Amino acid sequence: MPRSAHTDLDPEAFTTAIHDFNRFYIRIPTLERLPFTTLSVLDSLVAADRPLRLSELTTTEQISQPGLTQLVTRMERDGLVERRPDPVDRRASLIHITAAGRAVSSSRQDDRTRHLAPLLDQLTPAERDALATALPALARLAELGRDPV
Q1: pTM of the predicted model, to two decimals?
Q2: Which pLDDT tens digit goes with each residue over 19-40?
Q3: What Rg value do the Cα atoms of the chain yield, rounded?
Q4: Is 46 exposed, middle or buried (0-12, 13-18, 19+ CB in 10 A)?
Q5: Mutual orientation of helices 36-48 and 99-121 as an angle, nearest 10°?
Q6: Cα–Cα distance, 2 to 4 (Å, whole number)
């Protein structure tokens, strides 16, 4: 098994643990029932904390421009996003998340927190401490892996 160059951290074991947790996490029951791609676009807009061009979203969402255009049209119809002209390039549009879109994202986060809290309570104090200690490193890893948007 490959090891990180600086520690005994096994990247394969780490990848497996993150994969298993992510499979569980994305399936946590939530009140907001929307397609994964819709939720992913909302998450990208919230994370970016600014409007994004369609071309930027095709990169983060890994779907084709035509597919994303259709998705954004549906999301706009549902009141989750708005398209506005890009002030720098009037031929392009910027996708803005609406208050309704932010509410969906916030609701899902709240639902997941409510679901995870009792599970965290079932961990041993040492396991909770280990997770708390790992939080800054996980946040930094996510930052390093984030595509520049």
Answers
A1: 0.79
A2: 999 888 888 877 778 888 999 9
A3: 18
A4: middle
A5: 100
A6: 7
Nearest alpha carbon to residue 97 among 70, 79, 73:
79
Count of CA atoms in the C-beta half-sphere (13 A) of 60: 23
Which one-letter amino acid corresponds to residue 59? Answer: T
What sign does the dihedral 113-115-116-117 (CA atoms) show?
A: positive
Nearest-5° angle of CA 96, CA 90, CA 43?
20
Torsion over CA: 144, 113, 38, 47 (sign): negative
Burial 89-117 (b: 16+ CB within 10 A, else e): eeeebbbebbeebeebbeebeeeeeeeee
Select from 132, 144, 147, 131 the least CA-distant residue to 18. 131
